[in-house]
């Protein structure tokens, strides 16, 4: 298994509060990604990183920001959580040919 | 605009028979295709992939077929086993710097004994 961990694994928060999810990898991989999974939508790309301090938006980036200050860590922040951001969030590392996913974070926004 | 579509939300197959999962895409710039398997409460795991220069790739019980003219790919699992029961996602990407994947909605496969 690729060395990818996510924290927390579960979180319940209230609308309007900030939330930060962490992805940590031990593979020293250049590319890292954040996806969300929702019923009927599969996995959708939120943001990705192609190096330290190099990030770009994905398909559903509104309401999210990211930071990558070290190769091994990729943080996803919900500045002011909304109920529409209730989802399962997956971090991934890899390339076009293969991406390896973390175990996911289940977020509930009340 | 859904660039990658899996039109069957679910599929039920008898153990030992062949499972065929289908995926259609609209973006002609896609040149790499992947299949992932996902169990509940776990992250997706990579199964098999195919480049657009090929039309078939095999790995054990899993075979992926690509029909570029129809913009269609399929995953064949034979023989199907109870442990194959999971949600299957197809994904596609363009050969450019971003290395991004676009996923279909998923198909829930159930293998019946």
Major sheet size, sense and barrel closure of chain A: 7 strands, mixed
Poorly predicted segments of chain A? none
Uncertain stretches of chain B: none
Structural class of chain A: mainly beta
Main sheet of chain B? 6 strands, mixed
Report the end-to-end length of chain A measured between terminal Cα atoms.
Answer: 34 Å
Characterize the quaternary organization of these chains.
heterodimer
The outline of chain B comes out as globular
Helix content of chain B: under 10%
Average pLDDT figure of chain B: 94
What share of residues are in beta strands of chain A? over 45%
Q: List the helices and strands of chain A in order.
A: EEEEEEEEEEE
pLDDT averaged over residues of chain A: 95
Order of helices and strands of chain B: EEEEEEEEEEE
- Radius of gyration from the alpha-carbon trace of chain A, in angstroms: 13 Å
- The rough form of chain A would be described as globular
Question: Could you walk me through the main structural features you see in this protein, from its secondary elements to its overall organization?
Answer:
The complex is a heterodimer of chains A (110) and B (113). With 110 residues, chain A is mainly β. In chain A, 0% of the residues lie in helices and 59% in strands. Chain A has strands at 4-7, 10-13, 19-25, 32-38, 42-51, 54-57, 64-70, 73-78, 87-94, 99-101, 105-109. Chain A is globular. In chain B, strands 2, 4, 5, 9, 10 and 11 form a six-stranded mixed beta sheet that branches. Chain B has a five-stranded antiparallel beta sheet with strand order 1-3-8-7-6, with no helix packed on it. Chain B starts with a strand and ends with a strand. Chain B is mostly beta strands. The mean pLDDT of chain B is 94.
